[in-house]
Amino acid sequence: MFTGTLPQIVFSLQNMELYHHAEKRLLAARGIISETLVRDPSRDLDPLSAAHIDLLNANILAFLDSLDMPRCPSSRKLVETVGQNTEIEANDRAAATRVTES
Description:
The chain is mostly helical. The protein contains 4 helices and 2 strands. The chain is globular, with a radius of gyration of 17 Å.
């Protein structure tokens, strides 16, 4: 698992602004968010770093695909029931809310 994610983590943790850029770009690549803008950065992302982040994120997406994991987890929700976890589709969220509240 670390082989698939560690290069992106190591690169992005050079500083917090680079981390925010890398994570936002990963969230956008996974279809979770649509914009990658970061509030008032003091460091702009240079084209070489952006290209490297995109390459590292593409590797993470390929890793998710190899594990048959969804790129965008918001399409599924994990609901904790009494003593077990049940995966449900997004359109069943109302029922899931009733299950978790009881």
